[in-house]
Specification:
It comes from Lactiplantibacillus fabifermentans DSM 21115. This protein folds into two domains: about 30-230, Alanine racemase (TIM Barrel, Alpha-Beta Barrel), CATH 3.20.20.10; about 250-375, Lyase, Ornithine Decarboxylase, Chain A, domain 1, CATH 2.40.37. The model has no long low-confidence stretch (mean pLDDT about 95). A hairpin with a 2-residue loop joins strand 18 and strand 19. The strands form three sheets. Strands 1, 10, 11, 14, 15, 16, 17, 18, 19 and 20 form a ten-stranded mixed β-sheet that branches. Strands 8-7-6-5-4-3-2-9 form an eight-stranded parallel β-sheet. A two-stranded antiparallel ribbon has the order 12-13. Helices cover about 30% and strands about 25% of the residues. The protein is elongated. Helix 1 packs across helix 3. It is built from eleven helices and 20 strands.
């Protein structure tokens, strides 16, 4: 992929050692017979799908989860040979390609199985298609909802000469990251009722995302889909405390591209929403909402020389301005996510200011921000 932005001093830095640390911490807690599959969808939550997958593999991950087929194909093209599960629904028309590339897919309806079976037969595909049946226990997204419809699907998969390999069954919890476990327990009950109709469980029985494994470890099954915690981010935000220290892997830095003294009474940026109350030093930072740094971050702050500097005026598409405590040289480092001196800005801090979750901030960092990887 062509990176447009290599000649601008603004970059995302990824600490691969932090990713390995987070996996190692989870590996020491889980049952030895429970596998850990790294979730690297959405370009590794903005961290880089290939580099994260390679680091996760080195740390002991035995499989990978993605959201769409193209992500799985990208991993295969990069030489990843471990099992890969596509968690979203993939169109049945791609069943031959999925089987050819030895990829596993989530299936949530009998109709999908019927269509895929016909397409595989028409294309004379001999390789089995690995299937994980998705069960909707309360997420309301994809999956079988009743024991009756699930029974029909299981029978289809287990029919002699079936083109399918019934490899897994899974569900996803909606509130595993919350202190109130009422709805979580409701989903557990639904899960038990559904899988009761499966006489012989498949190889992989999995319900645990990061939150479930961190705070409901007894539910792990024999595979953990290790997602946001892989990147050192608490899936609960600030509501629950992780049982071990998560090391954030991502930092975001830039350099001041312009520094000026702004006279009292002069305004800054679109809409003139900020007016200097006194003579002020203003620095321009080469990053904006086109890079995924939200327009609504006016009034938030960055770090320059270890000092907190407020973002003044509206964040533009490609640039923004900050109020400096004094004159600072052009080229000085600006920390938008990370630590400078004894001050730290986290993705959670940014998310809190924007009224969202850190997942969205990380995934929203644009491709034109070069990713630089360190150990």
């Amino acid at each position: 992929m062509v990176v447009i932005g290599e000649h601008r001093h603004t970059q995302v830095k990824i600490d691969l050692q932090a990713i390995k640390h987070n996996i190692n911490e989870e590996m020491t807690r889980k049952d030895p017979l429970t596998e850990l599959w790294a979730v690297v969808k959405a370009n590794g939550y903005g961290h880089g799908i290939i580099q994260v997958a390679q680091a996760a593999k080195q740390a002991g991950a035995t499989g990978f989860c993605v959201a769409i087929l193209d992500e799985a194909l990208a991993l295969r093209a990069a030489g990843i040979t471990e099992p890969i599960l596509v968690l979203g629904i993939t169109e049945p028309e791609y069943a031959p390609l999925i089987a050819e590339k030895d990829i596993s897919v989530a299936v949530g309806s009998q109709e999908w199985l019927d269509q895929a079976k016909s397409i595989l037969a028409a294309n004379q595909v001999s390789a089995p298609l690995h299937v994980h049946l998705a069960l909707d226990t309360g997420m309301g997204r994809i999956g079988f909802q009743t024991p009756a419809e699930l029974s029909v699907a299981v029978k289809t998969l287990n029919t002699p000469a079936s083109p399918f390999d019934f490899e897994g069954v899974f569900t996803h919890f909606a509130t595993a990251d919350q202190a109130d476990d009422t709805y979580f327990e409701h989903q557990i009950d639904n899960w038990k009722q559904l899988i009761a109709v499966i006489d012989e469980l498949p190889r992989y029985v999995h319900v645990s995302n990061s939150a479930t494994s961190l705070w409901h470890q007894a539910c792990n099954g024999n595979m953990i889909r290790f997602g946001v915690a892989l990147y050192g981010l608490n899936p609960s935000g600030t509501e629950l405390t992780s049982p071990y220290r998560l090391h954030p892997a991502l930092s975001l830095t830039a350099q001041l591209s312009f520094v000026k003294k702004l006279a009292r009474g002069k305004s800054i940026s679109y809409g003139a929403t900020y007016t200097a109350a006194q003579d002020e030093w203003i620095g321009t930072v080469p990053i904006g909402y086109a890079d995924g740094y939200e327009r609504r971050l006016q009034g938030f702050h960055v770090l320059v020389d270890g000092e907190v500097c407020e973002i003044v005026g509206r964040v533009c598409m490609d640039q923004m301005m900050v109020r400096l405590p004094h004159e600072v040289p052009v080229g000085s480092t600006v920390t938008l996510v990370g630590t400078d001196g004894d001050q730290t800005i986290t993705l959670q801090d940014i998310a809190d200011y924007c009224g969202t979750i850190h997942y969205e901030i990380a995934c929203g960092l644009a491709p034109r921000l070069p990713r630089v990887y360190t150990e």
